[in-house]
Design brief:
The strands form 5 sheets. Strands 1, 2, 3, 15, 16, 19 and 20 form a 7-stranded mixed beta sheet that branches. The protein has 4 domains: 89 residues, no CATH class; 89 residues, PDZ domain (Pdz3 Domain), CATH 2.30.42.10; 193 residues, Alpha-Beta Complex (2-enoyl-CoA Hydratase, Chain A, domain 1); 97 residues, no CATH class. Helices cover 36% and strands 21% of the residues. The protein is an alpha/beta fold and 529 residues long. The chain is globular, with a radius of gyration of 25 Å. Strand 9 and strand 10 form a beta hairpin. The chain has 19 helices and 23 strands. Helix 6 packs parallel to helix 7, helix 7 packs parallel to helix 8 and helix 16 packs antiparallel against helix 17.
């Protein structure tokens, strides 16, 4: 019998990062034919023999980490060993804050370059701008600095000071800025705005410790601006905390329905999570965007919305991760992440896709040409379920969208130029913004009046060529509208910040454009509530 809990906070995660618990588990079970303690003795023998007889001194950190990973690889693709040196950065991503100066950065052509200051951070308050190069840190040359060195030199305790020397486009001389470090929040909601007078847009990048509060704040802000329909973008969201996914799904459900349930071998891992009808919003229609990289906690939300007929799911079939992990802190500061349960959508669908062919094939499937058609052809062999309103949905691997919309099919040339590690579109856009920053009084004016002209496109191509990159101009011109959108977004981001960047990127997004044409279907779901 499943144990029911309403809005229960459980110390588990449904994605790549998991809650740390302080415990060390001693094996107590036997496998079908092998006594686990006999195998442990064999392992001790192997370690002893190698330690005493191997031709060179053994790096036991590396060797045993390999043994731990090998053991867990035999279980499932998501159970894992996390070395102590990786644990801090992984935990930080999902606990929502760190202490430092607050910049998104990259190392371009050897220079530490500000991609964007975090809104409200010390860097933002000190006036750092997208495109600024930090050429010195506390008087020491920062040319060809590594990413690890950036973290070491710019992060530090709240209240401490660091002086950075800035080289800025349009200025002949560098200048120093003293920045006082502070707590820097890591936000899950990376974009919130109105697409038009009635359509709101929220993009969620992860399910971290503060995600539920961020989403709630975003929903309320959009409602105050007149939102009557919402695009909730979960594309490329790899998941996070299970209880945060439950809380986010709860905002869209207005009845006491099951949102998700988990089932595992131990009684305490079997839980049912119910919606609280007092907190759900039922006064706007909903479209949830997913793609092949939407996983785990993202699939919990999409699955609940689909099974309970609350909204329309648009995009591609999601990743297919329906396993729940718990994390234990180990004695040496490392951590062990073990799958403890499977999760199921309200109709009973297990979203986990098969992984019998091994981890390599499990992930390689994402890049397969014709992936959607292949998955769709397998529907006849998949278990079918009925939603709350009686629609047929399928289990057996990921959330299948109600409306399939493929990603933009860019040429290899365009993908290479836009995704180049030297960030050509960013560099060109920030340079242009620095030269033209007084041309527009507001983002709204910029959106309405600015276009990438033939002359500007020619200038961009010349810039790419000057960086020593050869490209197929015919292929690039096939994606001219997409490239123009990216270039315009980079200029806006340099002038008005990340929200402006995403506002313009989304306006030219193929999947978003198609999604907005299906709100009549989404409104039909709302009428059933």
């Amino acid at each position: 019998m499943l144990k029911k809990k309403k809005r229960t906070v459980v110390v588990v995660l449904a994605s790549a990062i998991f809650v740390v618990s302080v415990a060390f588990v001693i094996p107590t079970a036997y496998s079908r034919a092998v006594n686990i303690y006999d195998k442990i003795q064999v392992l001790n023998q192997i370690i002893s023999i190698v330690n005493e007889n191997y031709v060179e001194p053994v790096d036991w950190d590396m060797a045993l980490d390999g043994a731990f990973n090998g053991l867990l690889d035999k279980l499932d693709p998501h159970s894992a060993y996390i070395p102590r040196e990786r644990l801090e950065s992984i935990t930080e991503q999902f606990h929502g804050q760190f202490e430092g100066i607050g910049i998104e950065f990259d190392v371009l052509n050897g220079y530490l370059t500000v991609i964007a200051p975090v809104a409200g951070s010390p860097s933002d308050k000190a006036g750092l701008q997208a495109g600024d190069q930090i050429v010195k840190i506390n008087g020491n040359d920062a040319f060809e600095i590594t990413r690890e060195e950036v973290f070491d030199k710019l992060r530090g305790p709240k209240g401490s000071a660091v002086t950075v020397t800035i080289s800025r486009t349009g200025l002949d001389e560098t200048f120093d800025v003293e920045i006082i470090r502070d707590k820097i929040p890591i936000h899950s909601v990376i974009a919130t705005f109105m697409l038009d007078e009635e359509t709101g847009y929220i993009r969620l990048s992860r399910f971290a410790a503060n995600t539920s509060d961020e989403v709630h704040e975003a929903i309320r802000a959009l409602i105050s601006q007149g939102m009557r329909q919402l695009i909730f973008d979960l594309r490329t969201n790899s998941g996070g905390y299970l209880e945060q996914a439950v809380s986010v799904a709860d905002y869209f459900i207005t009845d006491s329905d099951t949102l998700v349930y988990t089932a595992g071998r131990k009684r305490e891992t079997t839980e049912v999570y119910l919606a609280n009808p007092d907190i759900g919003y039922g006064d706007f229609s909903l479209i949830v965007l997913i793609n092949r990289w939407s996983a785990s906690a993202s699939e919990i939300v999409a699955g609940a919305v689909q099974d309970l007929d609350r909204g329309l799911i648009v995009g591609e079939t999601s990743f297919g991760k329906g396993l729940v992990q718990r994390q234990w802190r180990l004695k040496d500061g490392s951590a062990l992440r073990v799958t403890i349960a499977r999760y199921y959508t309200p109709t009973g669908r297990l979203i986990q896709k098969p992984y019998d062919d091994g981890k390599h094939e499990y992930y390689r499937e994402l890049g397969r040409e014709g992936r959607e058609e292949s998955l769709d052809s397998l529907r006849t062999n998949k278990p079918s379920y009925r939603t709350k309103a009686g629609r047929t949905v399928y289990g057996g691997g990921g959330i299948t969208p109600d409306v399939y919309v493929p990603l933009a099919n860019l040429t290899q040339t365009t993908s290479r130029i836009i995704g180049h590690p030297e960030r050509f579109t960013f560099n060109w856009g920030t340079d242009y913004a620095a030269q033209s920053k007084d041309a527009w009084s507001s983002l709204e004016e910029f959106i309405g009046s600015f276009e990438i002209t033939d002359e500007l496109m020619a200038d961009f191509k010349s810039f790419v060529s000057s960086e020593g990159v050869e490209f197929d101009e015919v292929e690039l011109d096939k994606d001219i509208e997409h490239l123009e959108t990216v270039m315009k977004a980079e200029i806006a981001g340099a002038l008005w910040g990340k929200q402006a960047y995403y506002h313009i990127r989304v306006s030219g997004d193929v999947q978003v454009k198609e999604a907005t044409s299906h709100f009549d279907e989404a409104k039909a779901f709302l009428a059933r509530q």
